[in-house]
Amino acid sequence: MAKFSNSISYITLGVESLERSLRFYRDGLGLATKGILGEEHKNGAVVFFDFQPGLKLALWPRKSISEECGVPLMNPDPAGFMLAHNVANADAVDSIVQQVSDAGAKIVRPAKRFSWGGYGAVFQDPDGHLWEVVWNPHNS
Question: Which end of the chain has less neighbouring CB within 10 Å, N or C?
Answer without folding.
Answer: N
